């Protein structure tokens, strides 16, 4: 049976763990050829193993998306090997928090660098390739923290996720109606059981969603018709207090 992403070329950053990994597995199951990016090669090897037998395939591309040289080569590789890119999912993320009185200055910058600047780099390269195709979907991982801050001690992360929202809206404004056929949107999950929130991998609290639920939302956004943009899917557990 044809998958929902048959013959679609996708790139997923942060595909080694958590939401990115669950999305890569789902996309491969739905027939996509997935370029999977993260720094830890062993995570990508395990992803390839787990995707064996899927309709699609996974090409691991280990590297750091805050390295502009790596990102440029990454998109050159996709274009050289496939001639196009249909879907980009910016899922790589880094969390930094702490009180304003002692928040680590380097961690604050790193958080903005991974969550905002690297997503911008990948979006820029993807848009250039997708414009040549005449279509494409770019899906950014925001957070409920793109809409409300949840806590007063996570200034770096909260700022980065508000920035993802501003960046997404700005690029969507530029591209909607521009004739490029490229849509830009975001999926904004509440707390989700991944190595970011539950590094020990033990039983998660009841208000944690499963990464597979978020991956389903990302698939919905990715598999929509070309002329439809699922601009903002915000989803969180009913056991989580929003405000
Ligand atoms: N989990 C949640 O509760 C939650 C809620 C809302 C939004 N989100 C967002 O959803 C996205 C995914 O979160 P997650 O929970 O799945 O995170 P995760 O479990 O920590 O996984 C993050 C992935 O990003 C990769 N990564 C980090 N920095 C990178 C870099 N510089 N270059 C390449 N890859 C990099 C990591 O691999 P390496 O370290 O090996 O590179 C890892 O594979 C993030 O944007 C996060 O902010 C998460």
Count the strands? Answer: 9
Major sheet: 7 strands, parallel
**Mean pLDDT across every amino acid position:** 97
Q: Into which percent range does the helicity of residues fall?
A: 40-55%
What's the end-to-end separation, in Å?
43 Å
Brief summary of the model shown:
With about 240 residues, the protein is of the alpha/beta class. It has six helices and nine strands; from the N terminus they run E-H-E-H-E-H-E-H-E-H-E-E-E-H-E.
Report on this model:
There is one protein chain. The chain has one domain: Rossmann fold, CATH 3.40.50.720. Helix 2 links the parallel strand 2 and strand 3 (57-62). With 243 residues, the protein is an alpha/beta fold. It has helices at residues 18-29, 41-50, 68-82, 105-133, 155-175, 211-223; strands at residues 9-13, 33-38, 57-62, 87-90, 136-141, 182-189, 192-193, 209-210, 232-235. Helix 1 (18-29) packs across helix 6 and helix 3 (68-82) runs parallel beside helix 4 (105-133). The mean pLDDT is 97. 44% of the residues are buried. The chain has 6 helices and 9 strands. The strands form 2 sheets. Strands 3-2-1-4-5-6-9 form a 7-stranded parallel beta sheet, sandwiched between helices. The chain has a two-stranded parallel ribbon with strand order 7-8. It binds NADP nicotinamide-adenine-dinucleotide phosphate. NADP nicotinamide-adenine-dinucleotide phosphate binds at residues 13-14, 16-20, 37-40, 43, 64-66, 91-94, 114-115, 141, 143, 189, 191-192, 194-197.
